[in-house]
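Annex B, item 7. Sequence and structure tokens for protein A, then protein B.
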Amino acid sequence: MSKLTARLQGVSDAIKNTDALDKILNKIGRKMMGEVGQFMVHSSKRNFNNEQAPDGKRWKKLKEQTKNRKGHSRILFETGALNRSIQVISLGNDKVSVGISGTEVKKALTHQFGRDEIPARPFLGFSKPRDDEKKIKGIVVRHVQREVRQIT
């Protein structure tokens, strides 16, 4: 399985009482991490649709013979199945994994990392130009602050 995982780190520094943190995560963790996961799915699909790596670099163009065979110049697009297969793979109170499952895994790994004559065209990952990590931290902070306000 090809996947990208986000895990909560540093939240316990913001909340000194670990029992309170455990209660908060037990109450809101899955919902919060589900929102993070959906954000990560959307970001990976944007990378895919923009034909660029998470670092913002454009993917290597298709060879002319590939364009002729396909009848178009869209990179990593035949049926749309690979793009549609980007999804939340696992979800817990303190982590979420986004990736590819099912029949598209082998194809995803080939394109994410490259193989033989096929160049790497990564699409899974945190986008630096769009500052995904900051946005994900914002999602976490918003959920935790909302819950802390309700219990104080």
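Protein B:
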Amino acid sequence: MVAFLALFGGLSIHQAAATSLFTFLFTGLLGTWLYQRRGSIDWRIAVPVCAGALIFGYLGAAVAARIDARPLSVVIALIIVAAGVYIFIPQHSSADHRSGAAGASKHCSPPWAQPRASARASPELAALSSQCP
């Protein structure tokens, strides 16, 4: 969004970054409310992550405000390019690397991203989630 606002919105890189972050406030509040209603938020993880985001968000904004627009634009562009390249790199689970099965076809998500299901609630989902170590 920062690049779009800077290129097509006529904003400086500093204004584009600030505007982009401000818009996340509303989507974040709405998303938090909706997910909390469903009981989907693990507050033991969310609270420390939010605390870190507050601290480093403040520090990042303070540093960005002191950096000239040109180097800041280059850094943001490099992050965007790196993220684009990263999505094309195949991901392997750590279990594949430990067992030496680099070409294994079974890829599991990390434990915190695996669905939690009991066999009573959904036997199919419980079977899928139990296939990962």
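Comment on protein B: Residues 2-86 form one domain.
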